[in-house]
Structure formats: C-alpha cells, structure tokens
Target: 7-carboxy-7-deazaguanine synthase
Amino acid sequence: MNKPLPHSDGAPSAVAEGALRITEIFYSLQGEARTVGLPTVFVRLTGCPLRCVYCDTAYAFSGGEMMPLSAILGQVAGYAPRYVTVTGGEPLAQPDCLPLLRQLCDAGYEVSLETSGALPVAEVDPRVVKVLDLKTPASEEAHRNDYGNIAHLTQRDQVKFVICDRADYEWARFKLDEYQLAAKVSDVLFSPSHGSLPGRDLAEWILADNLPVRMQLQLHKYLWNDEPGH
Ligand code: SF4
Model:
C-alpha cells in the first residue's frame, strides 16, 4: 500500500489543497454493504441537506471541525487500513469531498462512498465504490432522489434501499425492475429500517418474490447499539 502524502505544515498550502468539515474519523468494522465485517476507517463528513425520518446520524448535521485534506489523510494513515469509507451526513454536500476521494484512492486504499443519492455522483473518482441510497417514500425524502445518478453506476457500485414498511418494499421492488438495478451494480441491498420493520418480515418477502437482492442487517447496531465512533 502506498503511503499518503505527508502532512502539510503551512497554512497557505492547506488552503490551496482544500479542507473539509469533519464530524469524526474512526476505525471500526464495516456494518453494512458488500464489505460488511471488514475493518474499515470511517471518515464522517459534517452536514446533510436531507432529513430522513429514520436518520441515525443526526449528530453529523452540524458542528464538526475543519481539517485540511492532508490532515485527514494523515489521520487515516495512522490506522494503516485496507478499507476506507467516506460517509456523513451527505459527504458530497462539501465540494472538497471529490479531491479527498481521489487522494484516498491514490494512497492505495479500497475506498467507498456512502451517499444519499440526492447529489450528483458523476465526478466521483471511478476507483471509488459508490453505495448509493434510493430514498423510499417512508423516508419522506424520496422526492430528493436524483435518478440521473443511476447512469453513472457501474458493476463496482451498490444501491441501497432502507425499507420501513410493506409499501416501501413494493416501491423498492418496482424501482429494482424499472432501472434493472440487479444487472447494473454488484449488489442491490435491502435493509429493514431499524426499529420499524422486523428483519424477518423483509427476509420472507424477498424469498417469496425471489428477488435478486442482498438483505442486510446493520452489524454495528448489534455490536455497539449505534453509538457514535463505531
Ligand atoms: S441522507 Fe443520511 S445523513 Fe442525511 S438525513 Fe438521510 S439518513 Fe440522515
């Protein structure tokens, strides 16, 4: 694995290189998606323009600390990870997310991006695995989905539906077919909304309809009860 760039020691270059407002950087097990269970550094960017009713990271809506990209890369390197996930909030709401993703890839990490699907992904470095949400009606943010993003997904990427009830499931099943998602990306993820839909119900619906999707439960909620920093 290549080493990240050394930390910049001058304020002018820090401005030139870009900076991001960061809520937290931590090392944990990936709780979901294709790399579930693998040790991963999470870089959680502050801020999100959405307000999903089930949001479990509202603490990332505000606050945080401005960090130059070199300082972020330096902190990530301290964990010597193989996998790095850039998440939020909505990470693409900050323009310097794009150079961060590129520099993390340049440093040799396997990089993924968790995004709400509401902001354009066209400029994301193609080496990044995009995990793109399609917001369901019960999230109350389905009107924010940017369906133009689907054209920019590849076999490296994943699409996630957080499903709150049977109506959400039917909606997700329709979108799966409408956009032929199973053929377009590596995994389509159906995740029961924690606390509102029993995982067993979702599992039985998927089996009854023989859907080409991967059901997932969020590992970190079982291990750490969704505490920040995990
Ligand atoms: S997009 Fe994600 S971070 Fe933003 S409100 Fe929805 S669940 Fe929360």
In short: Residues 1-15 have pLDDT under 50 and may be disordered. Residues 48, 50-52, 55, 57, 88-90, 116 surround iron/sulfur cluster (CB under 6 Å). Residues 166-178 form the longest helix (13 residues).
